[in-house]
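Researcher: Let's do a round of design. I'm pasting the structure tokens now; please hold your answer until I've finished.
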């Protein structure tokens, strides 16, 4: 695709690929921006150990020759040097919304496992404040009840996640992302939500035209 936003995604992805050093363990996010990152990373021909947050990223990365390791089981990596992922919204107060591609739970686990978590976006993803929809992953068991208790939430018509979860969106108010994150996390049946706190984010790389702007995250 040749849109301005697509170009900016590619520019941000190329900058993130330059952060990777030989021998690193790298978490690969999910989505169209990460697809550019995977191409740029593979082109560097480094010795890397990678983990992928979705089957789509895994197969794209493998096809380009990247070494993808399982991220489950006793022998899986416990820590990653770096994780790189896209986002749906990056707010001025540092909160990031993810999960538009349905991989939010695995994406949050991989971001939390990494010493450094870098978000790559086109400039249109920058927003003044976080707004709905906020993607959710629900346990399939009791998901109608979970949606009913949440109230302002709607089930997606998409297939289950690789972990068997049901995807949905929170559509209610998001006046205080921290308070909403706590409410969602403490709702029985919610596996995880797409609100990523500033403390999880090391840097945001924003493609703006042909240039890259770096916004420090709450973890930098
Ligand atoms: C997938 C995600 C994506 O990173 C997010 O939706 C951004 O996607 P894209 O890079 O295609 O704009 O969170 O679950």
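Researcher: That's everything. Go ahead.
Model: Designed sequence:
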């Amino acid at each position: 695709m040749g849109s301005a936003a697509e170009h900016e995604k590619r520019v941000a992805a190329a900058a993130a690929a330059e952060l990777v050093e030989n021998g690193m363990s790298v978490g690969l996010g999910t989505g169209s921006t990460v697809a550019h990152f995977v191409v740029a990373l593979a082109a560097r021909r480094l010795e890397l150990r990678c983990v992928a947050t979705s089957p789509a990223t895994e197969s794209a990365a493998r096809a380009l020759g990247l070494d993808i390791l399982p991220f489950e089981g006793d022998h899986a990596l416990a820590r990653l040097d770096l994780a790189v992922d896209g986002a749906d919204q990056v707010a001025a107060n540092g909160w990031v919304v993810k999960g538009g591609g349905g991989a939010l739970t695995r994406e949050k686990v991989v971001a939390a496992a990494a010493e450094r978590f870098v978000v790559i976006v086109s400039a249109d993803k920058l927003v003044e404040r976080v707004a709905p929809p906020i993607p959710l992953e629900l346990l399939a068991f009791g998901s109608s009840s979970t949606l009913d208790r949440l109230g302002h939430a709607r089930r997606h018509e998409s297939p289950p996640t690789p972990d068997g979860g049901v995807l949905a969106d929170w559509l209610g108010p998001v006046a205080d992302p921290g308070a909403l994150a706590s409410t969602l996390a403490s709702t029985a049946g919610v596996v995880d939500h797409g609100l990523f706190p500033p403390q999880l984010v090391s840097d945001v790389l924003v493609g703006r035209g042909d240039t890259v702007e770096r916004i420090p995250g709450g973890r930098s």
